[in-house]
Structures are given as C-alpha cells and as structure tokens.
Amino acid sequence: MVFGPGRVRELGALVAPWGQRCLLFTGADPSRAEAALGSLRGAGLAVDIAPVSGEPTFDAVRAALGCALAQGTELVVAVGGGSVIDAAKAVAMLLANGGDPMDYAEVIGRGMPITQPSIPWAAVPTTSGAGAEATRNAVLVDPASASKVSLRNPLMVAPLVVIDPALAVSLPPAVTAATALDALSQLIEPFVSVRANPMTDALARAGIPLIVRSLARACEQPDDLAARGDLALAAWWSGLALANAGLGAVHGFAAAIGGRIAVPHGLVCARFLAPVGAANIAALRRDGDPNGKLARYRDLAALLCGNPAAGEDEGVRWIEEFVRSLPLPALPELGHPEAIAEAALRSSSMKGNPVALGRDQLLDILAQTAGR
User: Fold this and answer.
1) How far is CA 76 from its chain centroid?
2) What pTM value is reported for the model?
3) Which positions ≥6 away from 162 have C-beta within 8 Å?
C-alpha cells in the first residue's frame, strides 16, 4: 500500500514491471483519472479505458472482459470508487481463471472455486468509502434476479493499492458523506460482528474516530487534505475489517435494495445504520446476550460520542443525529418491503450480525427508514 497526497504520480512506475498493455477502469467520467492515465502513459504503457457507470452488472463485466481479451490486456488498474474497483477486480480474476462471472458467483451462480491468482492489478480508490481496495470480493448486480452478489476468493486481493487523498477533493459533499458513512458502517458492523477479532477491533477503534472528526470538515472544506487523508485511511481499514470479520444487517439491506433499484450504496448504509443498531440492541436485551455484544455497543458509543460512560442507546442517537447533520438526500421509494426483507435474510452479510433478526424485525426497520 502506497499512501499520501500526490502518490498517484508513481502509479506508472509501480505497475510497469507487470506488462505493457493496461486496461484502465474509471468512473463514468474518465477525466477524473487523468493523473493516473498520465502516469501510466508516462511509464510507456499502452492504455485502454473501460468506464464504469453505476454499480457493475454481470453483463458489464462480460463486456469489459471481452474487450480485455481482444486487446491482449496484461495488467488492470482501477481508478474510482467501489463499483469501479469491483469491476476491475472481477475482470482481473476472470482473465486468469477463464469462464463467465456467473460461474463463480455466490447465491445465484454456480459457486465454482477460483483456483488461479488474478492477473496483476492495482486499486486506486477515489471516494474514501467502499474499502474495495482491501477486500477479496467483487460485488456485481444481476438485474434479472434483482440480486447483488459477490465473486469471492483471497486470490482476488489487489497486490498494489495506491491511496492518494487528493483524488477525492473534487467529490461533491453528498458523495463524500455517503461514501464515508459506508466506511463507518464497515467499521461498526465488524466491531459488533459475531466474527470480531483483535485485529478488526484495532482497525475499528482507530478508524471510527477518524470519520467522526473529519467527515463534516471534508464536506465543508473539500480541499482539506488532512480530513481527506483521515477518510481515506478509515475507508481502507474498513475494507480490511469487513474482509476479516464480516458485516451485518445494514449491508444485508444494502445488498437486497441495491439489486432492485439504482440507489447509491453508501446512502442506503447511512439511512439504515441507526435503525439496525437500535433493532440489534433491542433484540439482545430481549433474547439474551451470551457473547457480551451490549458491552461492545457501549464501547462503540464511547468511540462515537467521546464519552467513556456513554450507554449503547446514546451511540445509536449519535449516529442518527450525525447522519441527519450531513448533506444527504432522502432515500427513494423502495417498494416491496416483504421482498426486500426476504432478500436481506438470504444475504451473506447477515451471517455476521450480532443477533439473528427475523422477518418482522426487518420489516419494522424498513418502515422506520421510509422517506428518510
């Protein structure tokens, strides 16, 4: 991992030993990757560009894979948010393993094992949110089945990550807020997960305060590189945390909703974070807490509020007020709550939730988020 403002200028020299034909994945506006493109071409690489618009679908990955095969791609670089990085991650894996993305998809696919390391690829995140630069899975959308699922294997982890906080300076405040709240949820959910461990605890304890102190400032002063650096580090740590401790119901809902309607992933996480926390706490109080997760929610409240004596409910209230204070749009009409609840229950993210939530509890959470 290479970190610091301006470090994207080193990208070309870092990847040049991997080959000469590069497929560069960018967001819908490739101009945001100009610094990376200049570095790659300056190092003598031939660069083909694959723009990614919205969350990557199976068909979009198939199209990019076809282009990569036709162009003789030797290495892949992703410069963008989580969707861009996931698309690149999937294509780099498929170039090494062959086949169709559905061959390796969880839940709705064939679930075939990935046996070969991805071709060389680098992740250059620009949104300080998804943490996809640190994870071993690529999340794809299948509109036909209204599903959002992963291709997953440690062999997909990026061998090079370049984190340049300056690349996020041009983000609109609403995108800054939504993506950073995705990162916050990816630190909170592993912290209370049934799979939490000392490493992920350390990442959460270090990363949560960075977002607490710097998110509002980054929204108000987009060119504050210290604030951008805090968010970029927290996002990277959130990816490491989720990869090693799993997630929870917030991301179960995000997977279910993201497979049905076009809504920013971070916005869903932002709106569901407090209601899911409240539901988990209520269930732990009612059904029992053999693993001491209520104490973990008190630790979380202390991290959020800066008050060592804060109770678990205070942490939930802090999240609710914090989200309300940020420049975020309301969620669109989600529709079909029963279908969303059923899909959330099937999501792999639910396996990490600190308590098993039933269908009725999920429906209650959905009712609380309506119009928020």
Assistant:
1) 20
2) 0.92
3) 1, 2, 7, 8, 10, 11, 14, 122, 123, 124
pLDDT at residue 146 in the model: 84
- Rounded to 10 degrees, the C-alpha dihedral 147/362/278/55 comes to 10
Q: Can you tell me the distance from the alpha carbon of 57 to that of 80, in angstroms, rounded to the nearest whole number?
A: 16
Angle between helices 173-192 and 225-245 (to 10 degrees): 40
3-state SS, residue 331:
coil
Alpha carbon distance 261, 245 (integer Å): 28
Angle at 67 between CA 87 and CA 137, to 5 degrees: 20
Classify each residue of 143-155 as buried b or exposed e, where b means 16 or more C-beta atoms within 10 Å of its C-beta. eeebbbbbbbbee
From CA 224, how far away is CA 221, in angstroms rounded? Answer: 6
Question: Where are the extended beta strands (E) located within 137-256?
Answer: 137-142, 147-152, 160-163
pLDDT digits (tens, 9 = 90+) for 183-194: 999 999 999 999
